[in-house]
Amino acid sequence: MSRIVFLSRFFGNMSANAICAENIAKELKKMGHKVDIISYEESPEKAEGKGIYIITKPAVSEKSILGRAGSIASIVLGSMSSAVDKDLTALYYDKLCQIHNAEPVDVVVAMHFPFESIQALAQFKIKYPKVKAVIYELDSAVDGIKLSKMPLFFNRAAEKWLSQKYAICDTVVIMKSHETYWKSKFAKKFGDKLRLADIPVLTERIQHKREEKAQVTMLYSGLLEKKYRSPSYMLAVLKELKKGLEFEISFYSKGDCEEEIKEAAKEIKGIRQCGYVSVAELERATESADILVNIGNAVSKSVPSKMITYMSYGKPIIHFSSQEDDICRKYMERYPLSLILDGSEQSETACGKIADFIEKTKGKRAEFDKIREMFAQSDPKYSANIICEK
Fold this sequence. Notes:
390 residues, alpha/beta, 7-stranded parallel beta sheet, 6-stranded parallel beta sheet, 40% helix, globular
């Protein structure tokens, strides 16, 4: 049995970072390991419990990195020091040392983002070199959504900073969608430390008997942002679809597109704006929906975690593709109950495809065991095994 500690970040109950950490932790516990999670929350709603330690600090946002005092000059010169919050790093590090002093830790896993989790891990590894240090990159500092459009000088500084941390740590786990980028930048020096996985959210769901409904019900869940995941095209299609099909679509979403959805709801009967809810409530809503809706990212190679979560339900999925080289297509083309709609298609054409898809897939479910076999790297057990490697 090993003692394993995760450094994670929560933005409320629906954070992909938090969900992934907890999924892997559950698998590790099943294997007999003792697991703790140090969770950073900006305004904690989750109380500390057995194996969960909460650290709190005012908001630290990737969006404001370049706005911190003195940071631009520092980053231009190739240093990421001002982009990493020293106080938050100290909170992670001090709590980790406290846990280790009470009972020695064997493995520490830093879930990236934030940068501070990796910084704290590196400092801890220097002090305790026998402890296995794992960097688990759910997103990429340069190839990901938030930072993919940052200035070149920031990318170079981030790559230099990561190289320094990779040199200290033992294992680097990246999502396979970022493999090409990572290998082009880091494989020469750190290829032996690389392990590939995928978003660890493919977990079996309890399937309930489908209820017959008067109209089709659809569901979208997740963050919506005008810059990289806009609902505009989908809403235009839904407006056209309403002319020939009765349906209801629930948005469990947040971001800067909520006003746009609100305005669309005035024109399109059947749109329900539900906001962000608890994990349990969203799971119930997802289970009761007929069709699940996904929107691909307009930039980056990051895979939306909810797309893989959707697949775990085995339900039909309509995917709105937002870029030519859409990484989500590779998943949806393999998933047996999927419809891919290109953002350049006319709304009328898209509506015809949706109507046919609904008719063909009504009441159907993909078998979970087959889905797990297709996407084995998204099984949390896969990541748990990597972390346990000697």
